[in-house]
Amino acid sequence: MMVPAVLSAGCGSGSVKSGAAGTGSGVPPTAWAKSVCTALSPWRARLASLTGSTQAQLTSTTTPAQAKQNLVDLLGGAESASEAARQKIADAGTPAVDKGGEIAARFVASLQAARDAYAHARSTVAGLDTGNASTFYTAVASAFDKLQHEYAASALDTDKLSSAPLRQAFNEVPECR
Questions:
Q1: H helices of the chain, where?
Q2: What mean pLDDT, rounded, does the chain reach?
Q3: Structural domain of residue 67, as residue ranges?
Q4: Cα dist. 76→47, 52, 123 in Å?
């Protein structure tokens, strides 16, 4: 499973509960993995829906001003969905595994980076001049290229987690399939 991630421990406005240096405190790995995947499922579905809508918007006949408003709305939706998922992950607590606090913080930071990438793209598109269609669509393509780069730069592969119990939990919990 790939999750957008920045490998820093910044947690944004939500907080990840600390502790869980060993397995004696925190959330059991299977419960934490279930919470994470349950939070990510609607987020992924929303992003897929927004991606489909964006493609439809860009291929339909609209004015640059209409396209701009539609794209700003779509990017704002992705930003909001990413923040909602980030908050749910922060609320999931800390897995009761070695370096559980660091791992939880990486997941939160991952979604924070995704949220910020969508916010940057939304802000860029919102500031574009629609007077010249060719210039506008070239700038939109550039904004989406930057979004894709920022989003890809934040990828966290759960298959490479430093915690064997969490890797196992992500592989076994039905919500993660």
A1: 29-59, 64-91, 100-126, 133-152, 164-172
A2: 83
A3: 2-12+19-176
A4: 11, 15, 9
